[in-house]
Amino acid sequence: MTTLTDTLRPASTAQTPSVTITQYSRRGIFAIWAAAAAPMGVLAWIVAPTVADGSGIESMAKPLLACLTIGMVWQFVLAMGLVVYEQRSMRWSRLKEALWLRRPVSPRTGRVGGKVWWIVVPLALGTGLREFISIPAPLDRNLGEFLSSDFGQAMFDGAWGWFAVVVIMGVFNTVLGEELLFRGVLLPRMHGAFGKRDWVANGVLFAGYHMHMPWAMPGILLDTFFLSYSTKRYRSAWIGIAVHSAQTILITLMVFAIVI
């Protein structure tokens, strides 16, 4: 019988200045991927439609928003559970190293932080290319159509409670959820299983994780370069978080404009 400990048994270890980062086996990596992807798929395609009182974006919007937020929060719990189990500590000095939450380092000059952060700008702009190769979303799950519709305007007009949900989902999406799990936990622990192409495997897994919005998978494959490769190159999960957050900030501002 396979236990969780067996599944996540390290294949090797890689050293950082202050902590030891356990390298996961492929079996462990796929188990963690499934623990993130499956709940999101179930919440989006089973729970939300069950809770909705009809079909169409009008009935799906609120349950879908709530369900996806729950899924993002779960990923934070999963990520923190894994790293605390590994480090046997909740000290920030250890967690920031274990999760690559440190300033980016230029692979060419060795410069730490400072001007290195400017790489975020072209990377964030590059993520806009996803829109050109993604499949159009179904009408009952199309955020752009929803926000421009009369129902979307009515739902968020003065609705600070729902705006708070949008903010929470955004924070747990690009800071505490997806990025923390895929670039903070998984990417630093995939070298033992995938070698120099660990960032490629990370990007493919990240695209495949999006069962809750499969039409976006082709475009999200570009994040293999914009998020996974850049995070590995600069040895900082903050790069992926910053790049990924650009879209979230834009959406949040759009909703805020409706609320006020």
**SS elements, strand count:** 2
Q: Percent of residues in beta strands?
A: under 5%
Helical element count? 15
Please state the structural category.
mainly alpha
Gyration radius from CA atoms, angstroms? 19 Å
Tell me the helix content.
55-70%
What characterizes the major β-sheet?
2 strands, antiparallel
Adjacency order of strands in the biggest sheet:
1-2
Q: Point out poorly predicted stretches.
A: 1-17
Number of separate domains = 1
Average predicted confidence as pLDDT:
85
Distance between the termini: 56 Å
The general outline is globular
Return the string of H and E elements.
Answer: HEEHHHHHHHHHHHHHH
Overview of this protein structure:
- This protein has one domain.
- 66% of the residues lie in helices and 4% in strands.
- It contains 15 helices and 2 strands.
- A hairpin with a 4-residue loop joins strand 1 and strand 2.
- The longest helix is centred in the N-terminal third of the chain and has 31 residues.
- It is globular and about 50 Å long.
- The N terminus is likely disordered.
Describe the secondary-structure layout.
Blueprint: H1 4-7, E1 10-15, E2 20-24, H2 26-51, H3 57-87, H4 92-98, H5 120-126, H6 130-133, H7 143-148, H8 150-156, H9 160-174, H10 178-186, H11 191-194, H12 198-209, H13 217-220, H14 223-234, H15 237-259
Helix pairs in contact: 2-3, 2-12, 3-9, 3-10, 5-15, 9-15, 10-15, 12-14, 14-15
